[in-house]
Write a structure and sequence with these properties.
19% strand, 170 residues, alpha/beta, 6-stranded mixed beta sheet, Rossmann fold, 6 strands, single chain
Length: 170
């Protein structure tokens, strides 16, 4: 998260449940979590936290193939910037970006991610994020967009086929 986008500590510091990140890790190595926090449980080779790393400004380990897992801050002003960064970084060879975000097709951020995605995973229930301020299931539906390398994206989506709704986007 960039300095100008930093929010109240803890407000956007909720973590993705293990059942999502473990499924993605089955598809290939998660090489980076560019928007982690002190409580992050993403099984990534490298986790960036703010202010040590600015996930929006820095290149996402461009020398390493694999999956980048992104559960960005959802607060006002954050999401569209993270989606654009994810779409740009997904253009690298042998790179898949797994982007978890609110499933709201009325927003420009959702439309940008959907238009760039290889696949979309929608969940049959609201996700229960965890962390210091977690107090139950989310107040909105979520979607996991898989962007970039088709082989890695399909492998990641396949991990959810038996339990969730998977749509092929292109």
């Amino acid at each position: 998260m960039t300095g100008e986008l930093a929010t109240e500590q803890g407000k956007d510091d909720l973590c993705t449940p293990f059942w999502i990140t473990d499924a993605i890790a089955e598809a290939g190595p998660i090489i980076l979590d560019p928007c982690g926090n002190a409580w992050s449980t993403v099984p990534a080779d490298v986790t960036w936290t703010h202010p040590e790393h600015d996930g929006l400004a820095e290149p996402w380990r461009r020398d390493v193939p694999g999956i980048v897992f992104v559960n960005p801050p959802y607060g006002r002003g954050h999401l569209r910037k993270w989606v654009r960064k994810a779409v740009d970084e997904a253009q690298l060879p042998c790179r898949c970006v797994a982007l978890l975000m609110p499933a709201d097709p009325s927003t420009r951020a959702y439309q940008i991610a959907r238009d760039a995605a290889v696949a979309a995973v929608t969940f049959g229930q609201r996700i229960r994020f965890h962390g210091p301020r977690s107090n139950g299931p989310g107040t909105f539906a979520s979607v996991l967009f898989l962007l970039g390398d088709r082989r890695l994206s399909v492998r990641a989506a396949a991990e959810f086929i038996e339990t969730q709704d998977v749509r092929w986007c292109r």
